[in-house]
Write a sequence for this structure.
């Protein structure tokens, strides 16, 4: 008997855009919620997902936050959810790059001021 199995990471982006005030730049704007997970596939058919984590990516400055799991599950079910800054935790992967809200250039997270236009981030 021959079984074909695999474990792969996956990402699901939810089409629902939420209105929120960005904790990073202070602008009111939209954010995209997405989920990352690990998936066990049997004969290329997803069978089991685990290690689900929910993230919010801000459209204004590109900053990324981890989302409260309870709110993330509600977004995944398609419910209308109000996300506040209390539900968000800054996400950093070491080389996180953000955008300046003034000029739009990419700025490393270590900078307090934009090196291109001089505005405080």
């Amino acid at each position: 008997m021959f079984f074909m199995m695999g474990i792969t990471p996956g990402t699901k982006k939810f089409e629902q855009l939420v209105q929120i005030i960005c904790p990073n730049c202070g602008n009111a704007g939209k954010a995209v919620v997405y989920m990352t997970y690990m998936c066990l596939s049997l004969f290329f058919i997803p069978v089991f997902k685990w290690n689900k984590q929910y993230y919010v990516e801000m459209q204004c400055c590109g900053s990324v936050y981890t989302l409260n799991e309870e709110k993330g599950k509600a977004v995944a079910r398609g419910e209308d959810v109000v996300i506040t800054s209390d539900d968000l935790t800054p996400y950093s992967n070491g080389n996180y790059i953000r955008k300046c809200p003034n000029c739009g250039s990419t700025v490393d997270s270590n900078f307090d001021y934009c090196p291109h236009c001089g505005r405080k981030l």
